[in-house]
Specification:
With about 425 residues, the chain is of the alpha/beta class. About 40% of the residues lie in helices and about 15% in strands. The structure holds ligand KE4.
Length: about 425
């Protein structure tokens, strides 16, 4: 595959940006090789600067649930552009967006728009601390909640990919109140509450842990977190930056039927534009400035172009539940096809997934938490990743990221990807 333009761009980029990228996972650090610089995207396909075409299994890490550039979203954004890019003043679009999200997820009674998932989580944590008057927070090893200081403790995603369980530059004081528990292990949560019964402001959890690959909550896990938080008067925060509006229209809240006190969003609600949000029970959200004493602000929060793109995508999801059937069906096909292949060639892999989120782990272990995810053979993953990339399948360049399927994908792409995977495993593990 020709990659000369990507190589040239990467050389220039590395002189100007740390690692040549604006977000670490894009740098191919754990898989090596040249990141393919994308020129454009449409529906389920990416087109790089060298003219290569790829099936997109990254989808901008979740936002592009309908595929790239749905015509109706682009049309609406083009029209909105004529009205201006940003005002820093209240708009009807923000009211309509707030009405839409609170209608789609009724436990979100009040919401605040921000500009990223990180900002949403950072703000929700501050609100939980302000509302409870407590300082400690509980997160789970391997879960990633953005790069706010307090969250960079045994985080997932790029932090896990880089193998740095914590980050330098984060003063001890910033993480002193961040307690880590083990995903799918309620005892590890109970132990923290027994030790600090009146000091924990909140438990924040990815309802599906999609930043250490894809780890699905075991039966009763989320319900258990709800029970423990209620028992100790701590808030339960669902970080739905990935699962929100992806598992189904009302996200993990509806899918698992567990009601958190606060929910954070990102990705899908921006339709590809920089958007995050946090919301929940009105009495909690009324803590937020200018109404309450918890300060939070943002120049471009509720930006009209971002609201327009996000709202049109959300409206489509609200009125077309068949999207979830389609992306779930294709993802199930991908997972069962991969399982058939790894079984046939006796490959040391397992497949996790739920809805349109999938992960092929290069370990025989059934991955239910961070320690098991870390047992994956990242060298094997690297070899598989490049074979698939060179054959036109653009997966996330890390064993610890999810595979995203969009409504634009069809059986044709899934079957092509499976046939490429079959070729790879046959070449490495022997003929069928
Ligand atoms: P952002 O600040 O990147 O918009 O959102 C942070 C965040 C918060 N919570 C969850 C559950 C998330 O998955 C994320 C960000 N996800 C990663 C993908 N694993 C973003 C990709 C990247 O860092 O480039």
């Amino acid at each position: 595959m020709k990659t000369i333009y990507s190589e040239t761009l990467y050389e220039r980029a590395r002189e100007l940006m740390p690692g040549g990228v604006n977000s670490p996972v894009r740098a191919f650090q754990s898989v090596g090789g040249i990141p393919r610089f994308i020129h454009r995207a449409k529906e389920q396909y990416l087109y790089d600067e060298d003219g290569n075409v790829y099936i997109d299994y990254i989808g901008s890490w979740g936002p592009m649930i309908l595929g790239h550039n749905p015509d109706f979203v682009i049309k609406a954004v083009k029209e909105q552009l004529e009205n201006g890019l940003s005002y820093g003043i209240a708009t009807a679009l923000e009211v309509e967006m707030a009405e839409l999200i609170t209608q789609m997820v009724p436990c979100v009674e009040m919401i605040r728009m921000v500009n990223s998932g990180t900002e949403a989580v950072m703000s929700a944590i501050r609100v939980a601390r302000g509302f409870t008057g407590r300082d400690k927070i509980v997160k789970f090893e391997g879960c990633y909640h953005g790069h706010a200081d307090a969250m960079l403790v045994k985080a997932g995603s790029g932090v896990m990919t880089a193998g740095i369980p914590d980050s330098s530059g984060v003063p001890k004081g910033c993480t002193a109140d961040t307690l880590s528990a083990v995903y799918n292990d309620l005892d590890s949560v109970e132990a923290l509450f027994s030790k600090f019964p009146n000091e924990i402001a909140c438990v924040i959890v990815e309802p599906v842990a999609a930043n250490m690959g894809v780890v699905v909550p075991q039966k009763g896990f989320l319900q258990g977190l709800r029970r423990i938080c209620s028992q100790y008067h701590a808030l339960l925060i669902f970080d739905e930056v990935i699962t929100g509006f992806r598992l189904q229209a009302d996200g993990a809240v509806g899918y698992f039927n567990v009601i958190p006190d606060l929910v954070t969003y990102g990705k899908i609600i921006g339709g590809g534009m920089p958007v995050g949000a946090y919301g929940g029970k009105k009495d909690i959200m009324q803590m937020v400035s200018p109404l309450g004493s918890v300060y939070q602000a943002g120049t471009l929060s509720g930006n009209p172009i971002a609201m327009c793109a996000g709202m049109h995508q959300l409206r489509y999801l609200k009125h077309h539940p068949e999207v979830y059937h389609h992306i779930g069906f294709l993802s199930h096909r991908l997972r069962s096809g991969l399982e058939e292949i790894i079984e046939h060639y006796h490959v040391p892999c397992t497949v996790n997934g739920i809805g349109s989120l999938t992960c092929l782990y290069f370990t025989k272990e059934h991955v239910t938490n961070y320690a098991l995810a870390k047992s994956a053979n990242t060298d094997l993953f690297r070899d598989y990743f490049h074979f698939m990339l060179d054959n036109g399948n653009y997966f996330g360049p890390s064993q610890f990221e999810a595979v995203f399927v969009s409504n634009a994908h069809t059986l044709r792409e899934i079957d092509k990807t499976l046939s490429d995977a079959d070729l790879y495993f046959a070449s490495v593990f022997g003929k069928k």
